[in-house]
Amino acid sequence: MDGATHASDRRAGIGKAAISANGGVHLNSRIVIDDEFLSCRSSVRRFRRGEIIAGAGVLVDTFARVHSGVVSASTMLPDGREFIVEIVPKSGLIGELEVLRRQTLSLEYRAGSACELHFFEGRLLRDMYASDPCFREKVFSRALARISELELRIIANAASSLQSRLASTLLRLSTVYGKDAANSGDELIISQNDLAATLPASREKVNQCLRRLREGKIIDGGQGRIRILNRKALEACANGAVSVK
């Protein structure tokens, strides 16, 4: 994790090698960290926007909580394009299911913005899973919800126009960014490359749709920032009720 700033490392044995840098939905479905973990000693690390946090295929025994900023989780499509599967918001967890299953990471995690993560030992999660039936049920139900949500996104993407998919994605990301009290959700910090990878679609076609939305005074912004000006109009685009030309 070259470039990561270690603000503190309060737990011996959690170092740079814990999550390698070889290579970093709607997120209500992720496991919510319990208050018990917040009192545990952790390794606190900061990452710059675009920096790899953990690479796919790496076996880890730590999981992380996003303390500030957002993290993107991506994979590669068969045609070589990147697909951002989800954006992990503040308070979201990274690597929790892999730690429970003792499996390698299936996605690459990258800082979607300047962010701070708190890393915890995997045994804390496994001990709670083994001893608390309610927690096991929570893990299972949230994992199913996460899968269901991804399926719904894939189905919607297959049946919708690019403009509708883009509008839906902007609204979904608005909810993600709105989880941070410092952000109303109307301003999204995301590059056009990442936005195209989230849909997924070509950057050129995404740029064309963004330009139409700007011309229609529905959104504004540039340089990796998108500001929602007319949420109702954006919702109409997402539902296919309005097509901006």
Low-confidence stretches: 1-35
What percentage of the residues does DSSP assign to strands (E)?
A: 15-25%
Report strand order across the widest sheet. Answer: 1-2-9-4-7
Structural class: alpha+beta
- Secondary-structure element string: EHEEEEEEHEEHHHEHHEEH
Query: What share of residues is helical?
Result: 25-40%
| Overall number of strands | 12
Mean pLDDT: 79
The value of Rg in angstroms is: 18 Å
How would a crystallographer describe the biggest sheet? 5 strands, antiparallel
Q: DSSP helix count?
A: 8
N- to C-terminal distance: 44 Å
The shape, in one word, is elongated
How is this structure best described in words?
There is one protein chain. The protein starts with a strand and ends in a 7-residue tail after the last helix. Helix 3 crosses helix 4 and helix 5 packs across helix 8. A hairpin with a 4-residue loop joins strand 11 and strand 12. The N terminus is likely disordered. It is of the alpha+beta class and 245 residues long. The chain has 8 helices and 12 strands.
Notable features of this structure?
alpha+beta, disordered N terminus, single chain, HTH_CRP, RmlC-like_jellyroll, transcription, 245 residues, 22% strand, cNMP-bd_dom, 37% helix, five-stranded antiparallel sheet, elongated
Task: Provide the fold topology.
Blueprint (H helix, E strand, L loop, with lengths): L4 E5 L25 H4 L4 E5 L4 E3 L7 E7 L2 E6 L5 E7 L4 E2 L1 H6 L6 E4 L3 E7 H10 L1 H27 L2 H16 L9 E3 L2 H7 L4 H13 L3 E2 L4 E4 L2 H8 L7
Antiparallel strand pairs: 1-2, 2-9, 3-8, 4-7, 4-9, 5-6, 5-8, 10-12, 11-12
